[in-house]
């Protein structure tokens, strides 16, 4: 944990002052005159995560120009809409914990959680409109649309268990990569009107998001305590890249047996362990890790079209951090 903190502190160094001011900006964007709502948003602010997405916003902005008030609006917009989706996700997934804290629905029940998510979403929209940040609103709204489509596509495919590799990539591009893409794109758009530069940063963020999600999928088959229950994706009947690879290369009897476990016995620990062992033996983990590193290399290739600088180095270190993280 100490090493992780030191690493993050080093990455944040070029944007330390901006992140400190951003915290005040974000708290103000969350404020409400309704006491219950203000209490809940205060709880959300207190349990904030590592601020990875605001870091991408500010570093992308500094890579492309000079941080402005528009950049703070971009970071707040990304965080507001991201937080809204997390609150709604916890309701959809019937999840009572997030980052080691009770979720909003666990403390205040589903009805209030849904309304809080709606409030955060509307605050993001109003923040953009009030400041006439139409390009930022377009970039982030596009991400929220993609996230919803990706989630629904995954639900549809989970019912049939017929996800192929190209469909898997489309799901994670929409579900996860779109938001990191929007963070980088919004950061760039807050300091430049050069659409080719904004497009490059959006693509850079998308590559990182793809690598980030594959890394998360690998946790499902690991043995370390990473804060994610082992085999949770299998229990939820999600076909991730290591499992897709393993099934594609399995004999017909093995494939039938594993698919039967996932369909009918996904809540039985011994069957879940058998699926995990099957993936380990197939080379699925190595294949997924190679795919993750390929997306990361493509992100670096885009990043290296910018001149070397302290900011570029921090972005590079942040990419390594999110793809080598332990939780």
Structure, explained:
By secondary structure, the protein is an all-alpha fold. It has one domain: Farnesyl Diphosphate Synthase. 77% of the residues lie in helices and 1% in strands. It has 15 helices and two strands. A two-stranded antiparallel sheet has the order 1-2. A hairpin with a 2-residue loop joins strand 1 (97-98) and strand 2 (101-102). The longest helix has 27 residues, at 104-130. It is globular, with a radius of gyration of 20 Å. It starts with a helix and ends with a helix.
Give helix % range: over 70%
Q: What structural class do the secondary elements suggest?
A: mainly alpha
Biggest beta sheet summary: 2 strands, antiparallel
Point out poorly predicted stretches.
223-228
Annotation, overall tally of beta strands: 2
> Considering the protein shown, what is the CATH homologous superfamily?
Farnesyl Diphosphate Synthase
Count of discrete domains: 1
Task: Give the termini distance in whole angstroms.
Answer: 10 Å
User: What top-tier CATH class fits best?
Assistant: Mainly Alpha
| Oligomeric state, counting identical vs distinct chains | single chain
From the 3D structure, determine the CATH topology.
Farnesyl Diphosphate Synthase
Radius of gyration equals 20 Å
Please identify, by name, the CATH architecture: Orthogonal Bundle
Enumerate the strands of the largest sheet in spatial order, edge to edge or round the barrel: 1-2
Q: How many helical elements?
A: 15
Question: Could you write a compact summary of the structure shown?
Answer:
This protein is mainly alpha-helical. The protein contains 15 helices and two strands. The chain has a single domain, classed as Farnesyl Diphosphate Synthase.
């Amino acid at each position: 944990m100490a090493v992780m903190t030191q690493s993050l502190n080093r990455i944040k160094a070029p944007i330390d002052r901006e992140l400190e001011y951003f915290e005040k900006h974000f708290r103000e964007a969350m404020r409400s005159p309704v006491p219950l709502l203000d209490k809940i948003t205060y709880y959300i602010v207190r349990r904030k995560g590592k601020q990875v997405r605001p870091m991408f916003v500010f570093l992308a902005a500094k890579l492309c120009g000079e941080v402005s008030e528009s950049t703070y609006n971009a970071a707040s917009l990304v965080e507001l809409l991201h937080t809204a989706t997390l609150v709604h996700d916890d309701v959809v997934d019937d999840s009572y914990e997030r980052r080691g804290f009770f979720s909003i629905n666990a403390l205040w029940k589903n009805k209030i959680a849904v309304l809080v998510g709606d409030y955060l979403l509307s605050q993001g929209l109003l923040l953009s409109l009030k400041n006439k940040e139409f390009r930022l609103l377009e970039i982030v709204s596009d991400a929220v649309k993609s996230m919803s489509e990706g989630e629904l596509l995954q639900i549809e495919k989970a019912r049939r268990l017929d996800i192929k590799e190209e469909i898997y990539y489309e799901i994670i591009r929409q579900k996860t990569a779109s938001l990191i893409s929007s963070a980088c794109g919004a950061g760039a758009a807050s300091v430049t009107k050069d659409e080719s530069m904004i497009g490059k940063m959006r693509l850079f963020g998308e590559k990182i998001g793809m690598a980030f999600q594959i890394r998360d999928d690998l946790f499902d088959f690991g043995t370390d305590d990473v804060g994610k229950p082992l085999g949770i994706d299998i229990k939820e009947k999600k076909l991730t890249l290591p499992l897709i690879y393993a099934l594609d290369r399995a004999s017909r009897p093995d494939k039938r047996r594993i698919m039967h476990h996932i369909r009918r016995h996904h809540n039985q620990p011994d069957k879940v362990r058998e699926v995990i062992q099957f993936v380990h033996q197939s080379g699925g983990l190595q294949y997924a890790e190679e795919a993750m590193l390929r997306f990361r290399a493509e992100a670096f290739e885009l990043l290296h079209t910018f001149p070397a600088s302290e900011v570029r180095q921090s972005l590079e270190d942040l990419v390594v951090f999110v793809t080598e993280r332990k939780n």
